[in-house]
Amino acid sequence: MKRKMEVSELIFKIIAYVLLIIFAAMCIYPLLYALSSTFSSFDAVTNSKVILWPVGFQFEAFKQVFMDNQFWINYSNTLFVTFIGSIWCLVYSILGAYALSKKRLLGRHGFNFFLVFTMWFSAGVIPQYLNYQQTGQILASIVGGSSMFDIDLKWLIVLAMGMNATNIILLRNSFEGVPSEIEEAARIDGATELQILTKVYIPMSKATIATVALFFGISRWNGYFWAYRVLGTQQQYSWPVQVYMRDFINKNTNLTLQISENPDWEIGKATSMVYAMVVLAMVPILVIYPFIQKYFAKGVNMGGVKE
Known about the structure:
Blueprint: H1 7-39, H2 42-46, H3 60-66, H4 69-100, H5 108-120, H6 125-142, H7 154-160, H8 165-176, H9 180-188, H10 193-204, H11 206-222, H12 225-231, H13 241-252, H14 264-298
Helix pairs in contact: 1-14, 3-14, 4-7, 4-8, 4-11, 4-13, 8-11, 11-14, 13-14
């Protein structure tokens, strides 16, 4: 038998649904606008005639982007940094979280405190930049170079920018929720520490690992600031696609506050190309997310063991 809904509960649900619809529309609209601007005429884009649907169809912007070799080189760099960087971050984050989840770890509370401390107080932009520079010099000296620009700095982005205290804490909390009885049973069966991690903890924490992997992947895919600061203009062939898009915007459009001397038609063409790049840059995340979404539905197991 259906329970009769009270008036206050009905009002609450109506308000909640309305707010959710508005929020969803706010999230979807930028994507629809980017798609519409990609296929709209250059004049419509320049004169802000595009609101929701394309105005005057054209495919020239997509064609120009597909013919831009530099864009695809930088696109492949982003794929490389995202894939290799996410794996690198996951490996040492899992190892660190596994160690921090063990009560038998000497100095465990101190290590956990320093990990959380980095979330409260950051060293700042300048020390972080100097640290990246020194790391680049070390990598260059290993391969016999005299300057950090003697190496492909994509590897510096991968190796030096992988630390994230929040993700390690998420993994640690998930590992702490694994029943200790299962670990003890594995030890009795003769499992080593590595086997316990790979055969017990990782399979039982798939939801958390998938979530953290997505966090790392999105962070690497959208990474712009430090990639631009570290690589600069010396290694344009190592730029991720976001840095290339920013450089393209600065040089060819009036989307920034800079005054452009290009004619309106050229500005409209470049702006449509930017939106085409944005759409292409979103494709991998949109493709991968549905496969990882099922792990979000299961939730992250952070509870204790019920006896």
